[in-house]
Design a protein that fits this description.
Layout lengths: L2 E5 L13 H10 L4 E7 L5 H10 L3 E2 L1 E6 L5 E6 L2 H14 L7 H4 L3 E3 L5 E4 L12 H10 L3 E4 L9 H4 L11 E4 L2 H10 L7 E4 L18 H13 L1
Parallel strand pairs: 1-2, 2-3, 2-4, 8-9, 9-10
Antiparallel strand pairs: 4-5, 5-8, 6-7
């Protein structure tokens, strides 16, 4: 299955204003993708509409969010159940500092309806850290039957390798996001204990042209196993 599980909508202030639900899903279809996830910064506010548009256009969808921890590490968290995703969203709101977004500096934070019309703007700045550690975020995600990915693990900003310099062995994440095979091999060389982990390529798209047509499939056996473990937990 061809997937891109890290795309930003225009609810993320760093994303283009044309990252609307229909534009995202239609571009994903052009790229030959079969399943996507929109992971906006520190909010699941656009998820209901994204899932509805994906369903209408026959695109697989998983609810997602990109959380910035107090260590300034980005984690992508995925949910299959909308109600549990909203429990996690409410928890995030409790731990996101009430700093007002400066549109002139950070950009718009638009919420869309099913027709791609802007219905509201998020006032609280989403591009900041919640006041929780990686461990606490992962623990809460698992309590909500979510699974957790180390986002863009080798990026120069907000990756665990940049912020910490290594991946702690005790950290109970579920999958690792890389951009290419070179990054995967580098992380494996530094952490030979990483064996039965799902590696996934995502675009982290902030613009429509960034949504990618990946050549390799996700390991669907391991992907399904992660959800069985989450539901058992």
């Amino acid at each position: 299955m061809r997937v891109d599980l890290h795309i930003h909508s225009a609810l993320s202030p760093c994303a283009s204003d044309d990252m609307t639900p229909h534009n995202i899903v239609n571009m994903a279809k052009i790229c030959g993708l079969e399943m996507i996830s929109v992971c906006d910064h520190n909010t699941l506010g656009q998820q209901r509409v994204m899932a509805e548009v994906a369903r209408k256009l026959d695109m697989g969808y998983v609810y997602g969010v990109e959380v910035q921890s107090i260590e300034e590490v980005h984690l992508c968290i995925y949910f299959q159940d909308y109600s549990r995703a909203m429990v996690f969203d409410a928890w995030l709101k409790e731990h996101l500092p009430l700093i007002r977004n400066d549109v002139r500096y950070f950009g718009n934070q638009w919420l869309f309806d099913e027709a791609d019309e802007v219905v509201a703007g998020e006032d609280v700045l989403l591009l900041q850290s919640v006041n929780q550690s990686m461990e606490n975020i992962i623990r809460k995600a698992h309590q909500c039957q979510g699974i957790v990915s180390l986002a863009h693990v080798c990026d120069k900003a907000n990756s665990i390798m940049t912020q910490l310099g290594f991946i702690p062995r005790h950290l109970e994440f579920d999958l690792i996001e890389v951009k290419n095979q070179v990054q995967k091999e580098m992380v494996q060389q530094l952490h030979p204990w990483l064996k039965e982990v799902l590696w996934i390529r995502n675009s982290d798209a902030h613009y429509l042209q960034d949504i990618d047509h990946f050549e390799e499939d996700i390991d669907i056996r391991m992907w399904k196993a992660l959800w069985r473990d989450a539901n058992d937990g």
